[in-house]
């Protein structure tokens, strides 16, 4: 009897594997960090081989911790950091270059060239996306233009592209021995190369980017059997690989936001709010992305509006690793609680430009309002408040685009265990903030997609029954953070503009 589903959650700073039972409860987890590579200011890379090696380790350890064998596993799902770009040789399995991470801004000149005769919105009607360094297509072009011999290799069929999901599925299902070269609609929708309506690669866009169609993976739904792990492979056994979702779409599935108008916010490396718009493609006029929410098998695709924030949890990591102000990430709450407020300072973490709703690649991070009064506690508090203020900006844009005021916000991710941040978030939004019992909903969403494909969960109602409330933070009616402090934040953001020529 297959009684568990595995989910690989391959994130920006770590990889983990979680095992879930039919009630959606995690019964085992193993997690490992991987190296962050910064070759130049604004450049961010990962080693794809290291990620694959860590993936194998966390899967094997999670199976061991669950006390399971491969035969006990109903299915395996994958969720991944989106837009992070890998090009490799399918005959040798060797990448031609480190993965270029979604935060990386080296494609800024490519973006400027593509938009010079039109605008940032040149491809938005087709893709739902603005021209920005964030997305995969320009990263592929950069690799083809800058790695010696790569374009020639691509033209003769010796180079293929994938985001992290595609890289992992290919390796899991055989690699050089028949690995499946596939992605799902959610990841494909983040490339600037997929047509939102046809759910296929757009030939004109690919030609514009100079990306050969033969490099690109097959686009499939988010929930179907793509292939099986190999008996002789690193995991042993024949496990069905049957779910793929970009990390933020996985979180909205894990939060069971299956109805139009339902939204979630994930606090991870970045911060990402998604609003389910149903089968309707809603074109944003306020700096949001129009993207795929999910597609289960042969069911109609579901779309979403998304507000993407580049720096959230990674700002806490920066305070820990670069500034050495704390030893562990959870310590930031205690440090922030040593002061009553932010002391008048605001930290705008535009380390790789500003994402939604501004899309300013010329911006860089700034701490403003500094006086001799400010101490470590104020800086810690400003770091936490930055995530809440950025979320408010996205929510305002989402309300304007959808025409519907959000009544509450479901939250997930590592930072939602920070009570100070969550209460501040409720105050600055003016709506209740709701945390589910299983806060790591990204992995759960990948498990749902995989399990749904094989009948482990027979319906969306089965998944909804698993959702349980853990805690709700209600806004303080007497607080002025959603007026006075938010106004100051907006002023601080403008100070980061035009830093780069």
Descriptive notes:
It is a single chain. The protein contains 16 helices and 23 strands. It is of the alpha+beta class. The strands form 7 sheets. A 7-stranded mixed beta sheet has the order 17-18-16-15-21-22-23. A 6-stranded mixed beta sheet has the order 3-2-1-5-14-13, with helices on both faces. A two-stranded antiparallel sheet has the order 4-7. The radius of gyration is 22 Å and the shape is globular. The model has no long low-confidence stretch (mean pLDDT 91).
Give the secondary structure arrangement, pairings included.
Blueprint: E1 4-10, E2 14-20, E3 26-33, E4 45-46, H1 48-65, E5 73-80, E6 85-88, E7 99-100, H2 108-115, H3 124-127, H4 136-146, H5 150-155, E8 160-163, H6 164-172, E9 182-184, H7 185-188, E10 194-195, E11 200-201, H8 203-209, E12 218-220, E13 223-228, E14 240-246, H9 247-254, E15 263-267, E16 271-278, E17 289-294, E18 302-309, H10 313-321, H11 331-336, E19 346-348, E20 366-368, H12 376-402, E21 409-412, H13 419-429, E22 433-436, H14 441-453, H15 460-464, E23 469-473, H16 481-494
Parallel strand pairs: 1-5, 5-14, 9-12, 15-21, 21-22
Antiparallel strand pairs: 1-2, 2-3, 4-7, 6-8, 10-11, 13-14, 15-16, 16-18, 17-18, 19-20, 22-23
Helix pairs in contact: 9-14, 10-12, 12-13, 13-16
């Amino acid at each position: 009897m297959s009684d568990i589903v595995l989910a690989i959650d391959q994130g920006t700073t770590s990889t983990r594997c979680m095992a879930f039972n039919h009630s959606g409860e995690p019964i085992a987890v193993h997690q490992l960090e991987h190296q962050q590579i910064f070759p130049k200011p604004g450049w961010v890379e990962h080693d794809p081989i290291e990620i694959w090696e860590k993936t194998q380790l966390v899967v094997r350890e999670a199976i061991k911790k669950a006390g399971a064998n491969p035969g006990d596993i109903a299915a395996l799902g994958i969720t991944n950091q989106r837009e992070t770009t890998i090009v490799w040789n399918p005959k040798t399995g060797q990448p031609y270059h480190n993965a270029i991470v979604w935060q990386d801004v080296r494609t800024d000149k490519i973006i400027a060239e593509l938009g010079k005769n039109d605008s940032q919105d040149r491809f938005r009607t087709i893709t739902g996306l603005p021209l920005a360094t964030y997305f995969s297509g320009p990263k592929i072009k950069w690799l083809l233009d800058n790695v010696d011999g790569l374009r020639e290799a691509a033209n003769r069929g010796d180079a293929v592209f994938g985001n992290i999901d595609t890289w992992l599925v290919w390796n899991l299902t055989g690699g050089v021995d028949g690995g499946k070269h596939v992605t799902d609609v959610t990841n494909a929708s983040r490339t600037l190369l997929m047509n939102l309506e046809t759910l296929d690669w757009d030939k004109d866009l690919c030609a514009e980017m100079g990306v050969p169609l033969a490099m690109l993976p097959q686009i499939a739904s988010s929930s179907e059997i793509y292939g099986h792990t190999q008996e002789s492979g690193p995991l042993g056994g024949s496990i069905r690989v049957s779910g793929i979702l970009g990390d933020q779409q996985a979180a909205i599935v894990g939060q069971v936001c299956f109805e139009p108008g339902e939204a979630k916010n994930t606090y991870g490396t970045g911060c990402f709010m998604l609003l389910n718009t149903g089968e309707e493609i809603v074109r944003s006029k306020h700096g949001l992305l129009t993207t795929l929410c999910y597609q289960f098998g042969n069911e109609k695709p579901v779309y979403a509006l998304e507000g993407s924030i580049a720096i959230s949890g990674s700002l806490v990591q920066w305070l820990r690793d670069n500034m050495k102000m704390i030893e562990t990430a959870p310590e930031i709450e205690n440090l922030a609680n040593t002061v009553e407020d932010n002391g008048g300072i605001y930290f705008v973490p535009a380390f790789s430009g500003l994402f939604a709703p501004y899309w300013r690649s010329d911006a860089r991070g700034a701490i403003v309002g500094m006086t001799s009064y400010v101490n470590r506690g104020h800086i810690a508090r400003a770091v936490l408040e930055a995530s809440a203020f950025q979320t408010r900006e996205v929510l305002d844009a989402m309300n304007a685009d959808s025409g519907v005021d959000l009544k509450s916000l479901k939250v997930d991710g590592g930072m939602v265990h920070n009570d100070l941040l969550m209460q501040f978030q409720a105050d600055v939004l003016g709506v209740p903030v709701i945390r589910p019992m299983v806060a790591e909903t990204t992995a759960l969403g990948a498990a749902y997609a995989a399990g749904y494909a094989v009948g482990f969960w027979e319906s969306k109602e089965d998944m909804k029954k698993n959702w349980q409330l853990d805690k709700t933070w209600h806004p303080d009616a007497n607080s002025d953070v959603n007026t006075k402090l938010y106004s100051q934040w907006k002023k601080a953001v403008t100070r980061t503009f035009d830093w780069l020529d």
